[in-house]
Amino acid sequence: MTPSESMNAWPPGKVPAHAECLLTTTGAAASASRLIALTCDREDDRGYRKATDAAVKGAAEMGQAPGNRAAVVVNPVKLADDEAFRKAVRRAMDAHGWAEPLWLETTPEDPGRGQAESAVSAGVDLVLACGGDGTVTGCAEGVVGTGVPLAVIPMGTGNLLARNVGLPMALDEALEVALGSVQRPIDAGRVNGTLFVVMAGVGLDARMLSGATDPLKKRLGWAAYAISAIRHLGDQPMRVTVSANGDQPRRMRSTALIVGNVGWLRGGVPLLPDARPDDGRLDAIALFASGPASWLAVVADIVLRRPARGGVHRVQFTELRVTLDEEQPWELDGEVMGRTSQLTVVAEPGALLLRMPASAAHHLASRPPSHPGTSWQ
Ligand SMILES: [Mg+2]
After folding, report:
1. Distance between Cα 119 and ligand 1 center (Å)
2. Residue 203: how many other CB atoms lie within 10 Å
């Protein structure tokens, strides 16, 4: 049914002027619910109420939810062909009866947060984060706690949130999921107040990210990180004091301390195999190795998912405090954040509403609860 056809519910010549406006605007696929709010001074007008009902019904019959305008926040650096991308997005929006989206680009200074916040202020019903994990995190920070869902169109090197949750990598499939009706709340975390959705860490992983330059990533893809990591395997370990869930502080030597909302790295490496993004907790791993043999043992323990021992310690937490004897580089969702000697990590349960395929939502819902290991093991 087209918008003008939905107006046929009214007897000819009996459509109130404001109702006509409402129906026309709905036909342009704007959000009927927002229009209701905008015209609530006519709340006592029965004609208005009927028009509202007809508009919402018309939208529903067109296969739309009443809200149907999205913001597309894209990292232009990741776009190989801007025109083809916009064409594909418009085709999907049209097919689902959505309006022309708001187009917003990220910048090196603002990788998504400001753009997503503007989009939420403009009243969009969905934000599409199109880029790598940095873009996803930026956009997540902009929508978190607003009730506006986030969809991911993966375009990065890692795409770790998308891969961990089971989101499709191909553009057309990702758009189908974005404009579909399945969404679930997932957790997020904050390190020193900054939101993350995948992982954050201090020590080796931050050095590894610093060393994987853009030209290297372009040439080698994911392998750039592995090469960079190998260069830093001989670095001096950190001396840290950690306290999880308010427990007694514990001293340890660590080469890398990583916290995560999800646990799998590229290449199928189960760094935090118990992590699940909807259990209200975050997972941490502290690694310690000092030479080639002990690194091999640590890597084997991780890959073979052995219980924590020797150079590998794990904990699940809602709050983790980390004090470093010396300032160290740290990273958050793949972005190097500078150096610090203090990290406070807190879980934000169910903070982010994420569009996902029905299969992924089912998989998440049916996973058994992970082990409650809330003290270091
Ligand atoms: Mg979790």
Report:
1. 28
2. 25
Q: How many angstroms is it from 239 CA to the middle of ligand 1?
A: 26
- Report d(CA 143, CA 348) in Å as an integer: 14
Tell me how far the alpha carbon of residue 279 lies from the centroid of ligand 1, in angstroms: 5
CA distance readout (Å), 210 to 15, 70, 297, 331: 63, 34, 25, 9
Q: Distance, CA 170 to ligand 1 centroid (Å)?
A: 26
Centroid of ligand 1 to alpha carbon of 266 (angstroms): 19
Calculate how far, in angstroms, residue 248's C-alpha sits from the geometric centre of ligand 1.
22
- So what's the pLDDT on residue 266? 83
How high is the pLDDT of residue 369? Answer: 65
Predicted confidence (pLDDT) at residue 38 exceeds the cutoff of 50: no
> What is the rounded distance in angstroms from the CA atom of residue 109 to the CA atom of residue 102?
20
Place of tokens 């050095």: 207
Centroid of ligand 1 to alpha carbon of 179 (angstroms): 26
**CATH of residue 148:** 3.40.50.10330
Q: How far is the CA of 51 from the centre of ligand 1 (A)?
A: 45
**Do 56 and 78 fall into the same domain?**
no
Instruction: Please tell me the predicted confidence (pLDDT) of residue 354.
Output: 98
Whether residue 214 is found in the same domain as residue 285: yes
Ligand 1 centroid–CA 280 distance in Å is 5
Predicted pLDDT at 231? 80
Same domain, 275 and 202: yes
pLDDT in tens, 147-180: 999 999 999 888 999 999 999 999 999 999 999 9
CA–centroid distance, residue 363 to ligand 1 (Å): 15
**Domain count along the chain:** 3
Q: Over the chain, what is the mean pLDDT? A: 82
d(CA 260, CA 262): 5
